[in-house]
Each structure stands twice: as C-alpha cells, then as structure tokens.
Automatic annotation (TrEMBL):
Residue span(s) of domain HTH gntR-type: 1-66
Coiled coil stretches, renumbered: none
Protein name per UniProt: FCD domain-containing protein
UniProt keyword Secreted present: no
Keywords: DNA-binding, Transcription, Transcription regulation
Top-level taxonomy: Bacteria, Pseudomonadati, Pseudomonadota, Betaproteobacteria, Burkholderiales
Pfam family, one: FCD
InterPro entries named in the record: GntR_C (IPR011711), TF_FadR/GntR_C (IPR008920), Tscrpt_reg_HTH_GntR (IPR000524), WH-like_DNA-bd_sf (IPR036388), WH_DNA-bd_sf (IPR036390)
Highest taxon of the lineage: Bacteria
Amino acid sequence: MVVEEIKRWITGRNLNPGEKLPKEAELQEMFGVSRGTMREALKALEVQGLIRLSTGPAGGATIERVTLDRTFQFLQNYLFFQDITIGDIYALRRMLEPEMAALAVPHLSDADLEALERSIEISNPSQDNTHPAAMQRVEDLHFHDILAEACPNPFLRFQCRLINRMLETMVVSSLHATQDEHQRLGEAAWRAHRKILAAVRKADADQVRKLMLAHIVENQRHLDLLQAGLRSRLVLDSELRLGAGLPTAADTSLLLRRQAKS
C-alpha cells in the first residue's frame, strides 16, 4: 500500500528523473508508517527501477528513469516460462524491423553512420578478425540497435531493442555452436548489413525497408539450424548494463567471458 501511495504522490506532482523524494523520516510521517515499513517500500521501488537509494548526508531516494535493461530482465524472466521459439520472435521481427529501419534513415547522424561502419567491421567474419565468433554475432545485433536508436517512434524503438536483447542472450548462450555455424550466419548478416548501409547512405528508405525484410527472413533460416543451441534463460542482475546506452565491445566481451566460465 505504501509503494502505491508513493507512486501516486510522484505522479500527482509530475516529478521527473533526477528529482529527490523527501527524506525517509518525512516520508514516514507523511504516510503514517514505521521506519521498517518505509524502508521496505523504498527498497521495493528500487527493485522496480523507479528510484535509486544512496547513503550519506546528501543521500536518500532519487527518482530514476527505468532502464531498458531492467525492463528487459522482467520481460525475459516472464518469457522464460513460456514456450517461445525463434519462429515466434522472428514473426514479430519481420513486422517491426523493416519499418523501424526505414523510419530511422532521415534521422541517422554522421556519428551513427560511423558506428554502423564500425559494427560491420567488428562483425566481419573474415579469418583476419580476432574477435570471438559469438561476439561477432552479438555485434550483428548491435548494428540493428544503432538503427533503432535513431527511430523517431519511441514505442517501435523500444520493441525492436527488446527483441535484440532477447536474441543476444540466446546467442551468448550458444557458445557451443561450431565455428562453421557461426561463420555461415555471420557471412549472411555481414553482406546484408553492407547493402543496408549503402541504401542508408543514399537516403533510400524504401530500399532499406526491402533489404531489412530480406535480411530478417534470411537470418531466420540460419538461426533455425541453430535452434537446438539457442535457449532462453533467466537474466542476472550482474549482467545488467549501467544506464540504457548501446552495448559496447567491452560490455559484450565481459558478458561472453562470464558465460564461458559458467
């Protein structure tokens, strides 16, 4: 009940991320509850990602914007107990990603184009590439994240990024897949990404939409062969990235090392 009352209090005052709640003692008095009850309520809000608790003279509860990673964790843990297949994921991906990519075209900056180029370079499946095969496959998804971040539709952007994170956890879990399997998947994605980037540079949104759909369909064919090795899993708090930014090569490398050890 206290958690719900605090949420109503935040909503009623139109508070924004970064703003602080009153001190714990003030909240106790406001809601007429004990210190222990208030601490449990604040901890529950922190677990939900709505506030951040800090200690010290300037500490207390600060309102937070719920991160993509925290939202993904809740969704992935829910879906863990559902019978979700690659076909289910890609049925949605075929509908969303082509439109997302087309909408992103006029909003991509020079920095975004450079990031897309770097992503293609990192995921290049040539023998000269020293990045692990699984890391290259995660970088394939990063290419899509860059496009999603430029999409002006926030709900479409959100959906596409959640799908990419779901696929990422599956790919990282498939470290046992053979080099040849990763190679075939990587070569197909690398060729498709180069074509998509070329169309992006020409500002041809219709062509980007067509190329992305063809890429998603082809990608599913390759992943169907890895179906036995791709599995959903629960997401650990230790795997959540700080903030809601795009994954970096360092993020991915750390995650892969953790998975390999486990």
